[in-house]
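Justification of computing resources. Each target in the renewal requires a structure prediction run like the one illustrated here; the chain below, 212 residues long, is used simply to show the kind of job we budget for.
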Amino acid sequence: MTEFAVLKFNLRWLVHLGGPGLILIGIVDQSFVPLPGSLDFATIVLTAGNPKWWPYYWFMATAAALLGAWITYRISRKGGQEALEKRLPHSKVEKLVKGFEKGGFWALFIGALLPPPLPMVPLVVGAGALQYPRRKFLLALGSGRVLRYGIIVWLAQHYGRHIIRVLRQNEILVIVSFVIFSVGAALIGWLWTRHQKRKEVAQRGAPEQAAA
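Resulting structure tokens:
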């Protein structure tokens, strides 16, 4: 089986799996391996294929995003700020701390509302590690996700036929482009974080060498 055939098979598998597939994607995307846009793409495909089911996919996509984020929040909450500093550069941690002190609710809400490539996972990790209140976290994230996926399913419902036609005519191109975008965005985020950490280590070492 070629790589293209595998991609096509996975898309068909996702469509047949339906709502539960969105839950799986949400858990993976928000918890373990961030793939920007994966849940959005899956929601569009499913809603476009079954426009009458749009309330169901709206609910499942929102629930998927919240469940995945809640898992990450709980894990980060146990690890505390020390775990956050291991995962993110010190400068990024300082920005998160200041951001949550000034307007943590709106940071989460806007982050949940805006589309990729805005990275949402660092905000979720920061909320947990900084012990941001659970109720405010769920309210901010939930409000943003409800609006975001409401817009997505509305567009998919009204332009579903056109979306399905484009997917069928350019199935391989669409899937490959999506995979490249998702993996590329995740890789760029990882490389940037690694670069920032190395930069901070070098800056800390410079004063020590000068003093010696």
